[in-house]
Amino acid sequence: MTREDSSISATQRAINESAARNKIDWTAVRTSTCSWTFEELSRYSHCRVSPYVFAVARALCSQFSISASARKELTDLKQLLDTSGDDSSHHVLHLLTASDEGLTVLGVCGILNDYFHSAALAEFFETLAKMSGMPETLRPARGRWMELARICGKIQPPDSFHSLAQDCSRLGLVEEAGNSDLEEGVGPIGVVSCIQGMSEISSGEDDGRIIMLCGRSAGWHAAIAEWMFGLRIKLTIRDGMSFEGKTVLSNCQDDQVQLTLAFNNAGVPTDGSLVDDPPMPIKYQKEN
């Protein structure tokens, strides 16, 4: 088997394994009814977007078990969005966040926009649909996900998440960590896998004590784990091939850690390193 064939096989295997753990009843979703008023449809029409893609995003995000504190902050953010403009896109966002699942979509879009350029939203949701076992006949076309990205690309996370993500990310850039060659970038399969894994720990489906190797994005991932899922985490700088590393951040005692995230150097295998998962364009740049 060639290296290329092995990579393709690993990619499909990662998607299949995630889909096998799927918690969404797609048979029930397929036969469920969606309804919109003419006024609501006019809002979507004025924004040149399909209401279906937003309905799918809500269904996909229903699998994530976010913390009560994150939900409260997202509710506050929703109220701010409701009063921050009167154009059609704001009305579409208001319709999106009318349910708990919609609030989760708001949170997911916000944390992604904090680290990636908005086009990454389309890649993330397209990959999430595959890795959630969504039947191919139900999946929106790529162009529809781009419509969602155009509307939701303006969503920014609460300041508390942004500050935490910046603080955690800087820990991977400090000179004394010896990390000038940190693994760059992260792809949609890696991001979906991490967020699904965090949700499973948060909901009690997984008992934790998991290590995620995240390269330069470890700080951003750590912020998601703590802010969005309320996990007890440890953030480390990984040296060489060993799983042991220098702890640079922890929000609990060692025996209480549910999730360890590691900055790891280029050339050191990361979660999904054999998977064909091209990195999405990030906003943060390496500091000199």
Helix and strand arrangement:
Blueprint: H1 3-20, H2 26-31, H3 38-46, H4 51-61, H5 68-82, H6 88-96, H7 100-115, H8 120-131, H9 142-152, H10 159-170, H11 188-202, E1 210-213, H12 218-228, E2 233-238, E3 245-250, E4 259-263
Parallel strand pairs: 1-4, 2-4
Antiparallel strand pairs: 2-3
Describe the structure.
The protein has two domains: 3-157, no CATH class; 160-263, no CATH class. The longest helix has 18 residues, at 3-20. It is globular. By secondary structure, it is an alpha/beta fold. β2 and β3 (245-250) form a beta hairpin. Strands 1-4-2-3 form a four-stranded mixed β-sheet, covered by helices on one side. The chain contains twelve helices and four strands, in the order αααααααααααβαβββ.
Counting H and I runs of at least 4 residues, what is the number of helices? Answer: 12
How many E strands? 4
**What's the pLDDT, averaged over the residues?**
84
The radius of gyration over CA amounts to 19 Å
What coarse outline follows from CA principal-axis ratios? globular
Strand order in the largest sheet:
1-4-2-3
Give the oligomeric state of the chains in this entry, treating copies of one chain as homo and distinct chains as hetero: single chain
Overall domain count: 2
The biggest beta sheet reads:
4 strands, mixed
Strand content: 5-15%
The separation of the N and C termini measures 41 Å
What percent of the residues sit in helical stretches (DSSP H or I)? 40-55%
Structural class: alpha/beta
Contiguous low-pLDDT stretches (5 residues minimum) are: 1-8
Question: Secondary-structure element order, as H and E?
Answer: HHHHHHHHHHHEHEEE
